[in-house]
Amino acid sequence: xxxxxxxxxxxxxxxxxxxxxxxxxxxxxxxxxxxxxxxxxxxxxxxxxxxxxxxxxxxxxxxxxxxxxxxxxxxxxxxxxxxxxxxxxxxxxxxxxxxxxxxxxxxxxxxxxxxxxxxxxxxxxxxxxxxxxxxxxxxxxxxxxxxxxxxxxxxxxxxxxxxxxxx
Amino acid sequence: xxxxxxxxxxxxxxxxxxxxxxxxxxxxxxxxxxxxxxxxxxxxxxxxxxxxxxxxxxxxxxxxxxxxxxxxxxxxxxxxxxxxxxxxxxxxxxxxxxxxxxxxxxxxxxxxxxxxxxxxxxxxxxxxxxxxxxxxxxxxxxxxxxxxxxxxxxxxxxxxxxxxxxxxxxxxxxxxxxxxxxxxxxxxxxxxxxxxxxxxxxxxxxxxxxxxxxxxxxxxxxxxxxxxxxxxxxxxxxxxxxxxxxxxxxxxxxxxxxxxxxxxxxxxxxxxxxxxxxxxxxxxxxxxxxxxxxxxxxxxxxxxxxxxxxxxxxxxxxxxxxxxxxxxxxxxxxxxxxxxxxxxxxxxxxxxxxxxxxxxxxxxxxxxxxxxxxxxxxxxxxxxxxxxxxxxxxxxxxxxxxxxxxxxx
Lengths: 167, 409
Known about the structure:
The complex is a heterodimer. Chain A is mostly helical. Chain A folds into 2 domains: 1-82, NADH-ubiquinone/plastoquinone oxidoreductase chain 6, subunit NuoJ (Four Helix Bundle (Hemerythrin (Met), subunit A)), CATH 1.20.120; 129-167. Chain A has 7 helices and no strands. In chain A, helix 1 (4-25) packs antiparallel against helix 2 (29-49) and helix 2 packs antiparallel against helix 3 (53-78). In chain B, helix 1 (2-43) packs across helix 2 and helix 3 (80-97) packs parallel to helix 9. The termini of chain B are far apart. Helix content of chain B is 68%, strand content 3%. The longest helix of chain B has 42 residues, at 2-43. By secondary structure, chain B is mainly alpha-helical. In chain B, a hairpin with a 2-residue loop joins strand 1 (104-109) and strand 2 (112-116). Classes of the chains: A mainly alpha, B mainly alpha. Chains A and B meet through helix 2 and helix 3 of A and helix 4 and helix 5 of B.
């Protein structure tokens, strides 16, 4: 009934959720950033479980490595201290809590409806291999891919313009 | 024996392999510090360690005992989580990175065939880069958590340096990936096999099916970026002692300091292994396959080395040296003789022999550079990484893809 894959899935899922909760509850920005790294690495494990090895590795290299290092670098550079706690704001009490409860209900309903035929996502061999993925990316999805690259280029140019403005 | 292995091999073999690898790597790390001190001392016309044991051979052992027994003070105001977590993270990631490296071709022991390494993953190169990407956190957290301005500056320098050189490191490998068409380190090595020995390695790139191109530019870029990634001279700004005391590990003592140290040497071994695999044919022999006599090279090196150590030991001035050195020499000489007499074991040892010979050469080069080169200034380091290394690596990718496309047509 309970296979090894399922156990690994629950461990990784629990780690991801724990990391996400800890991200909000930590009072120091660096600890929050470290919790976010835990979330990203657990997500990479989940991708690996679905057989998407390339996506898993890229998740760690790009999100776990490059992006989060920049976060931590900026927090360290600004020497940000422990954040101040405010009391529960009115917006959170009257807007946030009911919305969170509603979201929880929707997810619970979705799980309840599909109970009985819950299965891990099918491992699609064609999609998971790096070669197939790049074939798709450079043939079928070449225009969205190029557009995204263009968007990133625009963002880089914008960053340079903003940095140069003061001189 | 073979029935047990066939049934429980999937469980027993990895555990045995991990135990052997950890033991070998930790010993290698210890003697790498000895070698480094000895080589740099001789470059600078000194003797280096020579008091503990013959030729200072027991110095790593004494250092180890010192690390365990020393007091471990913790400065006030540290961030405890980061302070304690950082050395563990550094050592853990460094040791994990060795798990995907193939040290030789597949071997068969007692009828059980297994890969010569811990895990044979089809994306092993990406796994290595993922581990390298996470390696920054150990240093950044140590610098930040220590509550010391020198540590913080060291940690900041290190994170900036690693982000900058990671790009060049990754891009310099793309040429090799274009040739191999695979992320698996095992397949990258197998692709470099040829009748002509070292001519078909990626650094020269001669192949019959014209699907290859010399990767000498990628090789140089990779080596420079790899030194910067491992924070070694001339890129050791994170721990520049003349300006930052000891950088990110200023506030660490005892075993926690040792963990950073072991982590640094282990990542040196990992990077050297990767360098040998990507550009120098991994476990492949540099001689053409038809030269069968070269298979006796391990014996040819081990026996004279052992005899020379015995000779050196007999005339050594201390009694301890007269016992240890001839014993060590006898082990080497007997090992060489055993390899000569048993062709089966000799064939088994060929792959690992060449692999460790190449890794050893790269490690020696690392130490040689530390004894020779001065340190970069920080702005020079950044200029070099972004304005020279990165464009050259990208040019190598474009050149290699163009040549391979043209040749395949």
